[in-house]
Amino acid sequence: MLFNSTEYLIFLPIVVCLFWLCPFKYRTALLLLASYVFYMTWRPIYGLLMMGLTIANYFIGLTMSNSPSQGKARKRFLVTGIWLNVLALCFFKYAYFCRDSANSVLALVHCQLPKIPFDIILPLGISFFVFEFIHYLVDVYRGSAPVKNFLEFALFPSFFPTQIAGPIKRYQDFCPQLKKPQKLTVQEFDTGIELLLFGLFKKVIVGDGIGMLVTRFFAHPELLTSVDAWLACYAFAFQVYFDFSGYTDIARGSAQLMGFKVPLNFNLPFLSQSFAEYWKRWHISLGMWLKDYVYIPLGGSRGGRFCAERNLFLTMLIAGVWHGAAMHYVVWGAYQGLALSLHKEWRHWADNVSFLKKIAESKPFKPFAILLTFNTFVFGMAMFRSETIDTGLKMTQKLLFLSPPPVGLNAFNLTLPSLSGSAIYPMLPLILIILAIGQILADRFPGPINGIAPIPPRLRFVRPVYLAAMACALMAFSPDIAPQFVYFQF
């Protein structure tokens, strides 16, 4: 069941109505049932996987909390729990990758591993709820109180608005909300509906519209000129942003309709002035998880600047592997780590060299830093979007203008005619300009909700007008087949 499907637009109102009609003491059980129904509409068997991991982590957490805080048993339970979750993730996500990598090495001695006798299909959301389980175990090991109510703990990873692609929740933030009777105000209900509409608009109208262009570009990478390659990567960067931030808006809006708050996951990332700031604005919940449970355990910034850069590099390498079981994701993660390390070096020099510090603090440097950060991010999109590392390297050559131009018709010429039948495509440049202006205004006048600037009283009429416009656009331009969200594959 996709957020942008008719089924979800029927499912969500039913669950919301039942939730508010249900007595408070039964609401957790109702949401747990609804969440498993939501998850099992795809492949019912994987509901057993989620439940099995839930039961195991629940009892490991309780047993660990009852062990002496300095005892070896407590650490053994933590290690066992982490390995259980990691092995489950690795089996479903990396089994084929590990087998193929091993076969590449064994081919040198003319050996080969046997084929896996059954198909392994990646369960939706496993990368996200496994991270939530690991966070829970580590925090309990560090002294946080465990969740003793099983229904509350079971709802923590399975909560349907966030179970497939996050945001990655912290149980200390989510579970206390289950103990307090929610009160839905008119303002919160309006905000929930606004987030739903805005998220659907970003996904269906903008993300899917740009996605048509991206698909056609990357279907013929050999026909791309260097300019085409840059256009393809720019388009993909915007597609991922609008697709994933649209998902997050729908998730936050769905949760808010039932009085729940889930973390903000995007905060105008394309206005970042550095790669370090970018990762504080893009996929915020993942960035915070990596910082707390990978970067700091590796040593963080302890040990000096070079140790910090090494740990940053290793953390982003793990982030690359988390995104997918392929070498081009590993290379993308290494690229992210290198960019963060270079920024750390730049900040060190800028803080210690007077003329560099003046440059970094000057007004003209801000737009330059934004453009440099954005284009550095876009450059990495070539490797991220490519199907293989070879294709990614060829795309990277094109971005660096190191590849000869294709002979004859190029991909840009092929793309425009093929999109001429799309009613929304000619409107995309105008939509992007309007949304870019909105981002700049929101950055200058940040509001309390979703980074949206507060509307002055004299302009309150604008809000219902643009909500109605988004609803009309969704009804007019929604495709017959709802494409899945980009991050579902991770």
Beta-strand residue percentage? under 5%
Q: Strand tally, please?
A: 0
Mean pLDDT: 82
Kindly provide the radius of gyration, computed on alpha-carbon positions and rounded to a whole number of angstroms.
24 Å
Proportion of residues in helical segments: 55-70%
In this structure, how is the largest beta sheet organized?
none
Runs with pLDDT <50, length 5+? 416-425, 442-454
Structural class: mainly alpha
Order of helices and strands: HHHHHHHHHHHHHHHHHHH
How many helical stretches? 19
Whole-number total of structural domains: 2
Q: Report, as a whole number of angstroms, the end-to-end distance.
A: 17 Å
Give the overall form: globular
Question: What this model shows, in words?
Answer:
The chain is built from 19 helices and no strands. It is mostly helical and 490 residues long. The chain folds into two domains: 6-182, no CATH class; 188-477, no CATH class. Helix 11 (284-298) crosses helix 12. The protein starts with 5 loop residues before the first helix and ends in a 13-residue tail after the last helix. Residues 416-425 and 442-454 have low confidence and may be disordered.
